[in-house]
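worker-03 picked up job from queue 'complexes'. Input manifest follows; two sequence lines, order preserved.
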Amino acid sequence: MDILIGIAGLGIICLIAEIFDFRKAIVPVTIIGLLAVLGYSGAKALNNGADVIPGFGIDESKYFGMVITDNYALAFSSLFILLTIFLVALTPEFHKQHKPKISDFVAIKLFLLTGAIAMVSFGNLAMFFLGIEILSISLYVLAASEPKNVLSNEAGMKYFLIGAFASGFILFGIALVYGATGTFSMETIIALDKSTLPTWFAIGCGMLSIGLLFKIAAVPFHFWAPDVYEGSPALTTATMSTLAKVAAMASFFKLLTTLNPSHAGFLTVINIVAILSMTVGNLTALRQTNVKRMLAFSGIAHAGYMLLAFQFAFNAYVTAQANLFYYATAYALAGIAAFAVVLSVCGNKGNQDIYNFNGLGKTKPLMAAVFTCALLSMAGIPIFSGFFGKFFLFNQVLDKGRMILVIFAVINSIISIGYYFKIILAMYTKDSTESNEEQVKSAPFAYQAVAVTAIVINIAIGLYPDFILGLIK
Amino acid sequence: MDVSFILVILLFGAAATYFVGDKWASKAALIFSSFAFAATVYIIYQYNLGEKVSFLHDWMQSPHIVLGFQADGLSLSMMLLTTALTPIIVYSSFGNLFPKTRSFYALIMFMAFAMVGTFLSVDGFVYYIFWELSLIPIYFIALIWGNGDAEERKKAVVKFFIYTFAGSLFMLVAFIYLYQKTHSFLNLHLYNALLSNTEQTWIFFAFFLAYAIKIPLIPFHTWQANVYQKAPAVGTMLLSGIMLKMALYSIIRWQLPIAPYAAHHYKYILIGLCVAGVIYGSILALKQNNLKKLLAYSSLAHVGLIAAGTYTLTLDGLRGAVLQMIAHGFVVTGLFFAAEIIERRLATQSISEMGGIRVQTPRFTSMFMILVLASVALPGTFNFVGEFELLYSLAQANIWMAIVGGTTIILGAFYMLRMFQLVMLGESNAKLFKDVTLSEGIVFVTILAVLLFFGLYPKPIVDFVTPELDKMNFYINRYN
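worker-03 finished. Artifact:
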């Protein structure tokens, strides 16, 4: 809870700073503040039972059980804070035409982070719903943050309508669960004997799942994603496809582990959704020429991979949590690095078509190298952490003996090579279409710094996966 | 000093090569790869003295993965092949000018690092990582510095990448499945895994897919000739000289001992497939007009025979395979280098445009001739030793297989000598052809010295690899 208060406070400081005209200080102060909170939550997560750092015990539950900060919540919160630091660092360069509004963009991202953290550390369904709404409303605003651009308006509107629809499902689901159990508290629900509950408990769980699958953009609830991703400003797309997607996935996982609808068909449905997401996402991505759209579809496919983590035995989901966290971290870091490059290449152009990347290997070798690493990580080539993420998930699924799922996932990995390598080929084999003047200009420092840092962390956790896996024990 | 030192040298060499800049990159690569070779020789010397040169260190707790590099006769000899060929390959490229020199040489060094890692790993997971890692540098080497039309090259290289990547993913699934059974990736634990016959069959073929694509065996060979032709000479040498040996080595190290039942059960089908590849490669080589493609198909035939030798599941077959892997590594590097020299001078790969080189270049001709003779396994060359043992093992398995496989020598002599005749002999060509320079000569002499020395005195290598192969042979034949 202290983390939540800290971050929300930071957002308010941003808004106040604008009033007193300290705009220049906003981004540095925010980043330093976030780093401090990251250190705090990281220290708590590292403590993890063993008292590594004295005085940082994990406080299980606070505010009448509204917030539970367990390992899982702390680990994911740390990831979200890290991602937000990257996103905030990208903000001033991206919005350099709108300097006066910088505080809004930073503050909204901080509120979005507040929502995301509430979504993984909730101890009560009401808190969960508050979190998901704070996250969603921030995203609606960000998606429509280019008022003079028709596509951005369309994206904001579409996202709002679909998002509101999904929220309706979630709310109805929560109502049904309340009706069946008589409580919002997760601690009480987890202790209940699920077999004695009335049917509408399962229906409520189903409706909650549908709502969250909308947010995750899993097939067949994915139709909004490509349009919204393409239309939104590129930085918002980066936020949606990394932070928001991972947050929704993490809260979905937490919800299912605690509600635990022990209906046999439930997992089968999730698995079918996983297979569909992977296959449809990858096959459609093959045909895209716009890089943002391609990354949107690849994000759908990655959501499918993450859904593989839902194979766990009753009350024994710690490994599954760790695997999901690892995959999410790897995916999000690669995504941030990739989007930093997309921003630097297509920042001031009207489109994000692949030909913009032609000859990047010659004109901006560093950015091309980072993008290549990010794509190789998403494709699951070893030493990049994306490979280890896939490996841990495959290991877990095979442990439950579901060979068919692994075969589907493997075939999809092969398909995904096709479109990831399309970009790599464009960067290294084609000649640049840019004018000479643009070729000489180097990428902005902020983009370079974020891209390199993200990819270095990505490779580092690949070399030392125990660190990430050990955060959740 | 343990074997991980070699990996450190090569990885550090790759970084150093990149950072010294374009001007010094090639020299740095040569220095570091030669240093790695010297260190390899020293480690082998230590190993022979009975000192401990293996390296084992825990990497991950759950799943349990060990960063383990084992040193035994088999691994060390393959490592020696890699570190000996790398400086030769680097030195052979001194005559060419590459754009972005430092990236080029850094990738070569990185590839050597990955290949040495593949040969040394005891842990299946670490082995898989190195196996995949070696794919990335060769992809970029062939893609960026290759020759011919860019679009066609791109197609060929991407096809190669997707083929090999697809094959290896199934190997990864097999490894994970084995891990579920044994809770370990260490090769000794995997050999002793209790697997039913059906499980063995599935695992065997998952491995087979990865290796058959990499070697390549028919019908998985379609990527090969195009990539060999389109890649720069260095890339072709790396691919044919060392990289496909990774797959042959892995058959002996992983596939056969883990699934011996399946290996025995499908023995004749596999040998048949390999021998069919021998004939098929030879016939295609006969018809080629492109020099590099001809060499690619001849390589297809030779490695088909090596693979057939491993699948005979006899000690002779395994030993012949290892000897022939080393011999073929050297000879094929030399042959592709000769093709590269001709291409440098005449700017063509097409045989019909060559001819009449002999009268202008006595030294080049004689060295090329010895290489051709070595490649058709003339007694007295290293290739003869290996080929002889391979055919002998085939005869133990089935005499008809040996007879059909033996035609490789006849067909090989036929297409290689025909190639030599068309390329080197004939009327004096109008084009001027300079004889080999000193640096080119050094490369040839080194390769020929190795081939002839071990051709006459193979005992050191045979003695060095036999104990480990005996052990593998025990695991492979433990149910009989």
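worker-03 released lock.
Chain A touches chain B through 27 residues (CB under 8 Å).
Residues 277-473 of chain A form one domain.
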